[in-house]
Design brief:
The complex is a heterodimer of chains A (about 210) and B (about 375). Chain A is of the alpha/beta class and about 210 residues long. Chain A folds into two domains: about 1-35, no CATH class; about 35-200, 3-Layer(aba) Sandwich (Rossmann fold), CATH 3.40.50. Helices cover about 25% and strands about 20% of the residues of chain A. The longest helix of chain A has 11 residues, at about 60-70. Chain B has helices spanning about 60-70, 85-90, 90-100, 110-125, 180-185, 205-210, 240-250, 265-275, 290-295, 335-340, 365-375, and strands at about 15, 20-25, 75-80, 105-110, 130-135, 145-150, 160-165, 190-200, 215-220, 230-235, 255-260, 280, 305, 320-325, 355-360. The chains are: A alpha/beta (about 210), B alpha/beta (about 375).
Chain lengths: ~210, ~375
């Protein structure tokens, strides 16, 4: 039984519920969790169906930044916690393929943030993609992000299953997902991302 | 286990990641591994450390400077002065001593705006040394002869400094923040010393004083020798307070800083008052905050509506102050003393006016008035 929220460090308010107290494995307190409001968005990228869950703003953005930029591995299970049952039900029998991040960042973090994040979904994970060149997407405009499409490759000697679910953290222009889609060369692919960038709120410059 | 950065020992805050245990108490400053060996950046002091002041220090200031330089050799120091006593200038001879001995010095303060202003002032004072400012928006260059930074940025400099001057330790967010306190202590090397400076002592500062041996140096006089301005308190309902505010603005010939408690009231008041007066605004998240402050200093506007961002460290010559206090908890005693201390700072205009417009003459206001009266007692002796 956890006593404090993993993010805000406040004491849990269990609302006098024994179920909450003993059965819930949510590491966020009710106040933080209530700030994460799911707004599903479905997009189609060259035939690839993508479902995104949260707008990239507010607490989910802060959590992702702390996880990715401050290397706070302890947060890995909070992101998919509320949607894991839905994902496991809708994509039963699928194998998760996390989108790759740049090699240098992976080395600095000491962990692959997407693979660790997907761990809580308890589905088979195949880490078979890599980036050929070390391109960071931070502060890149749309044109430069498009280079990512040709930059993602599949590791050699790996058998790719038929039912694949691509997973990424944030969809901005969709270039990483498209790159992975192209590299895998399979038709029956589906993709999910945790967040989507609300393009109306940004100009041509996106910041992750 | 102990965090090398924030000295946390509470096991609940340690998490075992793929690289080993790390501390989550100070995770906002990026992960630091417990087993990590932190080597300080081997930068050297290249400047000569010579300084030039635009004016001569008063005999009272010189006495404190002398005490400060001798005390720091033995122990940490708390420089307890009234607002506008010239703390920023008092430490210049001390910084110079350290730079001449090729030792590393840092001046840290909570407010970003003050960092920018002080760095410019020190650049003018230390012409032969490299002064670097490190705060939000200025993090490309991290090392120089003298580093002026926000208290948050001290996390970058573990075990590095021979001297840290921690200004306004009674200010948010440093006050009472154990993580920031420990980060500051861990930015010192093994022989390093800290000079704390503040205008108000409370229980949080007393806690600091109990951590390491500390000598308190007091200075109760402003350089121009005139007492602190005693605020005039006007109590009334909201409508009356707004009417009084408009009346003061109408009658006022000098520039005025109007302090309000929230960003919301700052914006609201600005939109109404800009229809009738030459007014600008400033709050922490405003992108043009530096432009607005510079425009006010250049006397392009007569009035500036500000939240607590202008509460400390800022010197604007010849201004009067209006403190618009509508709620109980936001402007505490220390904040009121600091805001009132923005008035009467210059030699040309040592007498300013300070008004507190409030719904309730509460203990914070009474406490602030008492402290100002106590500080002014030296002039009666």
């Amino acid at each position: 039984m956890r006593t404090r929220c993993i993010y805000c460090d406040e004491k849990y308010d269990y609302n006098n519920s024994l179920i909450d107290m003993y059965l819930s494995d949510d590491m966020l307190c009710t106040k933080c969790r209530s700030e994460l409001i799911i707004k599903r968005k479905r997009t189609k990228l060259d035939g690839l169906k993508v479902t995104s869950y949260y707008p990239y703003e507010g607490l989910i953005k802060d959590l992702l930044l702390q996880y990715k930029e401050c290397f706070d591995e302890a947060l890995c299970d909070v992101f998919f916690h509320h949607i894991k049952d839905e994902i496991r039900f809708l994509y039963h029998g699928y194998t998760l393929i996390p989108c790759p991040s740049s090699r240098s960042k992976k080395e600095r973090r000491g962990f692959d943030h997407m693979v660790t994040m997907c761990g809580c979904l308890k589905m088979p994970i195949l880490d078979c993609l890599y980036m050929q060149d070390d391109i960071s997407q931070v502060n890149k405009d749309q044109r430069k992000r498009k280079r990512m499409i040709d930059n993602i490759k599949v590791k050699e000697d790996i058998v790719i299953p038929d039912k694949i679910l691509l997973v990424d953290d944030v969809i901005t222009t969709g270039s990483t997902l498209l790159g992975a889609y192209k590299a895998l060369g399979k038709d029956k692919l589906k993709a999910i991302t945790l967040c989507f960038v609300n393009k109306d709120a940004h100009s041509d410059k996106f910041q992750l | 286990m102990k965090c090398p950065r924030c000295s946390n020992t509470d096991p609940n805050y340690f998490y075992k990641g793929s690289r080993g245990y790390y501390c989550r108490k100070c995770i906002a400053f990026k992960r630091v591994l417990i087993k990590e060996e932190i080597e300080p950046e081997p930068y050297t002091i290249s400047g000569d450390g010579e300084y030039q002041l635009a004016f001569e220090l008063t005999p009272f200031q010189k006495e404190v400077v002398k005490d400060l330089i001798t005390s720091v050799k033995e122990t940490d120091v708390l420089l307890y002065t009234i607002t506008g006593a010239g703390k920023g200038d008092l430490v210049i001879p001390l910084i110079s001593e350290y730079l001449k001995e090729k030792k590393r010095v840092c001046y840290a303060i909570s407010r970003r705006e003050v960092v920018i202003e002080l760095a410019e002032r020190y650049k003018r004072a230390f012409k032969g040394s490299k002064v670097v400012k490190v705060c939000e928006g200025y993090t490309d260059e991290l090392y120089g002869d003298l580093i002026v930074c926000t208290t948050h940025q001290l996390y970058r400099y573990l075990k590095l400094f021979d001297l840290i001057i921690l200004d306004e330790v009674d200010a948010f967010p440093f006050r009472g923040d154990e993580v920031l306190n420990n980060i500051a202590l861990n930015a010192l090397n093994s022989d390093g010393k800290i000079v704390y400076s503040t205008a108000t002592i409370d229980e949080e500062i007393e806690k600091l004083m109990n951590k390491r041996p500390l000598r308190v140096l007091r200075l109760d006089r402003r350089p121009h020798g005139k007492p602190l301005v005693r605020p005039k308190v006007i109590v009334g309902p909201d409508v009356i307070l707004y009417m009084v505010l408009v009346y003061i603005m109408y009658k006022e010939k000098k520039q005025v800083i109007i302090f309000v408690e929230s960003i919301r009231s700052c914006k609201k008041l600005y939109h109404i008052l800009k229809l009738f007066f030459s007014v600008t605004l400033v709050y922490s998240s405003l992108e043009e905050r530096n432009i607005n402050i510079q425009a006010f200093k250049a006397k392009k506007y007569q009035f500036i509506i500000a939240t607590s961002v202008l509460e400390r460290g800022i010197t604007i010559e010849g201004v009067d102050i209006v403190i618009f206090k509508r709620f109980d908890k936001i402007f505490n005693k220390a904040a009121i003393i600091q805001m009132a201390g923005r008035a009467g700072r210059s030699f040309k205009d040592p007498y300013g006016k300070v008004y507190i417009l409030t719904k309730d003459n509460d203990k914070e206001i009474k406490g602030a008035l008492k402290e100002i009266d106590d500080a002014n007692k030296v002039y009666l002796l």
